[in-house]
Amino acid sequence: MRRRFKFALLAIPAFTLLTHAGVGTWQARRISDLRQDVQGVVLNSLKLESQIGFGGLIHNFKNAVLRPAEADYILNARQNAENAINLIDQLEASARRNEVTITLTNTRDMVAAYASALDDVETRAENGLTTTQLDQIVRYDDTPALQEIERFQNALTDDISDSIEAIEMTLLLAGILISMIALAGGYYIFTLSQEEQRRINARRRAVDQKLIDRVNLHNADLQRVNKSLQQFAGIAAHDLSTPSRQIISLSDLASSDQANDEERGMYLQAIRDSALRMRRLVETLLEFAKQGFENPNRDVVNTSSLVRDIVNELSRNLERPFNIRIGELPYLLADRDLLERVFTNLLENSIRYARPGETPHIEIDGWKEMGRFFYSITDKGVGIDPAYSDLIFEPFKRLKNDDQKGSGMGLSLVKSIIESHGGRIKLDTKYKEGARFVFWIPDAQQHAAKEVA
After folding, report:
1. Is the pTM here over 0.85, yes or no?
2. Does 37 share its domain with 57?
3. For the chain, how big is the Rg over CA atoms in Å?
4. What's the confidence (pLDDT) of residue 255?
5. Which of 14, 146, 292, 364 is deepest in the core (most CB within 10 A)?
6. Long-range Cβ contact pairs of 220-227 (< 8 A, separation 24 or more)
């Protein structure tokens, strides 16, 4: 039994590190190849411009027209044309390799036209044409071709740069997901044996620290990727803190000498439930990073039952007691997991920002009006200055006098979830005895019936 525990404890972090290392190696190799492609495109574009422009095909062609007695100009022009065609082939091959639909058709046609016109230049003396007459015959507008080269280079390098950013983002998301899976799995195994708990805990912390260091290093390099990735990290830090604290607290209770077998079983089941919630939360947040909650998984939700479950969970895990009145709340079609995050964040805020020395008092009411389900969460806490009624919903924004711990993502997440259901949320600035948040979500069934009609 103990050997299986040790093997399991070693297998999880080892697998995580190997996976992370493998993804990192692939990413580094792929990015290196793409950067070489960018360098090759830029270099070949410069070479192509050189072969065509000043000192190249056009230059030698015009000199051949003006100085027909000097045969070197025609020879050099033919060589320039051959070199230009080869460079065009290489650039178009690079575009196909990177799945970019763009060609240098105008440039290829221009080079071919100049090469063909060289025959007319060579026979000028035989035909008795003057320089002016020949220039009118062989003149070719090369402006579109020269502009095409610049557009080609910009389009191809931009596409390759986008590919590099996509790979970097994938690596970071994979690192965060792997880290969360390792954390949840480590905690679950950690609680199975009281004797092994201290050793597993120390080993887990060491492995987690290495993983956190790796993730932090990647975060430092990839912060410029895009703003949505920063929002994802903030939401994860905010909403994973509660289940992780629950797991730690329950683990301590399970390892206590005062706990009997029945109590340990109860603690282990609670730990498993917290780990499952953490996994669901990670999956939900990953979906948010991809789609921004554009398509919630709607189902019939008994909001009264949902709020009671949340209140019971908060009562077990928060050290501060609180009073709450739950009114009659309507049923609605919504994503239950996402709606749970909405009520949890709003209730935690009401408890956290209660007046010093007072027991938080919260009221939750709901009603239906004009095809919308309305909900209000009212407290008698310190309140929020109406001047900040919009700022509080922005990611990472915290008020200057806010000395509470937090990431500044709670209300931003709440707003994103509600808006993904087609609703809106606002701070009731007329309420002065504390804070009152009111949000509404449209009746999805009624809306669907109108669309069918």
Report:
1. no
2. yes
3. 34
4. 81
5. 364
6. 221/168, 222/168, 222/169, 222/171, 222/172, 225/165, 225/168, 225/169, 225/172, 226/165, 226/169
- Nearest-angstrom CA–CA distance, 417 and 421: 7
Q: How far is CA 25 from the centre of its chain?
A: 21
The sign one gets for the Cα dihedral 397, 401, 405, 410 is negative
Under the banding of pLDDT at 50, 70 and 90, the label for residue 125 is very low
What pLDDT score was predicted for residue 182? 63
Backbone conformation region of residue 99, classed left if phi is above 0, alpha if psi is from -120 to 50, else beta: left
How sure is the predictor about 186, in pLDDT bands with cuts at 50, 70 and 90? low
What single-letter amino acid sits at 199? Answer: R
Q: Which one has a higher pLDDT value, 319 or 262?
A: 262
Q: Beta strand pairing status for 361-369 and 323-326?
A: parallel
Residue 208: which residues within 8 A CB-CB, separation 6 or more? Answer: 179, 182, 183, 186
Its domain, for residue 391, covers 299-452
The whole-chain average pLDDT of the chain stands at 77
* Residue where a domain stops, chosen among 119, 135, 159: 159
Q: Among 39, 150, 160, 32, which residue's Cα sits nearest to residue 98?
A: 160
Determine, yes or no, domain membership for 261.
yes
Question: How many folded domains does the chain comprise?
Answer: 3
Which residues on neighbouring strands pair with residue 25, listed in sequence order?
Answer: none
In degrees and rounded to multiples of 5, residue 98 shows phi and psi of: -100, 10
Inform me whether the pLDDT recorded for 435 exceeds 90. Answer: yes
CA-CA distance, 39 to 33, in Å (whole number)? Answer: 10
Among 126, 141, 159, residue at a domain's last position: 159
Tokens standing for residue 126: 């035989």
